[in-house]
Amino acid sequence: MTTPPYLFPDDLLQAQRDWYAAYRQLATTENAAQTTVLRRTLQRLSVRITTHPYWASIPGRAPAARMALKQEAWEPEREEARP
């Protein structure tokens, strides 16, 4: 079974990449102040991702599209291949 293709807006894809980057930083930081900043960043990005207008354009397929977004944002080789 193949995953349906989704054309994610650049700002949505970047927000998911930024979320992963903040999460990786949070996992390695030992600075309490930095932890607070990173947690707030994750919350802000989570809201931006989940409330993005793109999701209204694919009713009924949103869960699959959300997983596809996460996968695409996670794979660095796809990021480099994008124009």
Protein model, in words:
The structure is a single chain. With 83 residues, the chain is an all-alpha fold. 69% of the residues lie in helices and 0% in strands. The protein has helices spanning 10-28, 32-50, 62-74, 76-81. It is elongated, with a radius of gyration of 14 Å. It starts with 9 loop residues before the first helix and ends with a helix.
Secondary structure blueprint with pairings:
Layout: H1 10-28, H2 32-50, H3 62-74, H4 76-81
Quick take:
The chain is mainly α.
- SSE order: HHHH
Strand runs, count = 0
Unreliable segments (pLDDT under 50, ≥5 consecutive)?
A: none
Radius of gyration: 14 Å
Estimated helix fraction: 55-70%
Number of helices: 4
Mean pLDDT over all positions: 89
Q: Main β-sheet: number of strands, strand sense, barrel status? A: none
How does the helix and strand content classify structurally? mainly alpha
**Shape estimate:** elongated
